[in-house]
Amino acid sequence: MNEILKAPRAYDTEVLWQKDKDHFIHPFTDFSVFHEQGCDLITGSEGIHVEDSHGNRFIDGIAGLWCVNVGHGRSEIAQAMAEQATRMAYFSTFNNLSNAPAAELAAKLAELAPAHLNHVFYSCGGSAANDATIRLVHYYFNRLGKPNKKRILSRRNAYHGTTYLAASLTGIESNNWDFDTLDHLVTHLSEANCYRRPEGMSESEYCDHLVKELEDTIERIGADNIAAFIAEPIMGAGGVLMAPKGYHKRMQAVCRAHDILYIADEVVTGFGRLGHFFASEAMFDTQPDIINVAKGLSSGYAPLGATLISDELYEVLGTPQRKGGVLSTGFTYSGHPVSCAAALKNIEIMQRESICDNVREVGPYLEERLKTLAHHATVGDVRGSHFMLCIENVADKTTKKLLPVEARVGDRIAFEAQQRGLIVRPVGHLNIVSPPLIWDRGVVDRVVETLDESLAATTATLK
Ligand code: PLP
């Protein structure tokens, strides 16, 4: 146990809840329920566990929010951040100013990424990385004298964040209820979802069908008006949706043929979750023009996002468009030294402890064990890959019909699991399992046992 956890701090939960309720606008929260229920204060964390203000301990089955990849309570990362904050907490990186961690990290990312991605644009998280990317892509085509190439192809049920542009790319309908989106910039294609593919279609026919939709869309809109296609290698928040085999490679080939850039949003799939620092090339045989990462890049110890850009694009972005011109985009905190120091230490730990190897070894076991839960009445599908998995609950396994929303099946399973010491994430009728990448087989067995009991308890109350 680290020194800080050895000295427990008392929290006045009631007082804190009141302050929170009165003043903190939580993201993605239903305040009508929240005001009645109050919130859970997470006050401690170490390794694979988190602890609440009442001293209850839970196995973290969601790595915070798909991000604490090396696990909690790593004093080494805290130490690296403290050292950097003490030495030089912040200075601008505009123009020719830089700092050591930002430079070191950019070089490290170029070393880890596919060979043609050698240039890094920093932001503060995944939404900002996606947002900045679209601006850069538009700028790139403007510079090439192709100002009509503006439209971005995204997919229904994709999640790319919540800045205005990133939310517009996002294809989860309910996420944008009552919000506005930049519809003139984005066209959504179908999601790639093998489980819910059209009845009677084989996986390879389904792949043909999705590729044809892309080709038809390009023909309809015109390649001259389309700048890029953006995709998560496996869709995360949309429900860990698995594309048919070969989908990404074929989609990229069509994009290439039409001078459409291919952007991989690896905010979740990157940094080890699928057993590689970058999944695009290693697992999906694609060579994106741009890859975005965040979350696991710093394992959540500090906010950080990065856009990895190809040599080809950089050649255009890197030269001023006119005398006195500069690439006028970036943030106060682009290349923040404390965040970059956290990311460097995080990567050092991942390499030293061979964390990607652990994911490649334990991930398939987690998937295999979770699949044993398919006998439960509500479990229609268990899917995903390595440490990015999901259970889809249904009312009827044959028709795949969903339970009514009021049944709140995902919430109920998550509640039962939490009562038994495990946190999994409910998203509607789904339960997502996306743990820190340090789970071993013993932990997997405990987790699956807990989920088994939680599913049984939930099913009993649904009758
Ligand atoms: N892209 C993907 C694939 C994500 O899953 C997320 C967040 O969950 C984002 C982008 C947005 O990242 P952030 O919440 O750091 O802005």
TrEMBL record:
Required co-factors: pyridoxal 5'-phosphate
Gene Ontology molecular function, alphabetical: transaminase activity
InterPro entries: Aminotrans_3 (IPR005814), Aminotrans_3_PPA_site (IPR049704), PyrdxlP-dep_Trfase (IPR015424), PyrdxlP-dep_Trfase_major (IPR015421), PyrdxlP-dep_Trfase_small (IPR015422)
Keywords per UniProt: Aminotransferase, Pyridoxal phosphate, Transferase
Coiled coil: none
Gene3D superfamilies: Aspartate Aminotransferase, domain 1 (3.90.1150.10), Type I PLP-dependent aspartate aminotransferase-like (Major domain) (3.40.640.10)
SUPFAM superfamilies linked: PLP-dependent transferases
Family: Belongs to the class-III pyridoxal-phosphate-dependent aminotransferase family.
Protein name as it appears in the record: Aspartate aminotransferase family protein
Gene source species: Litchfieldella qijiaojingensis
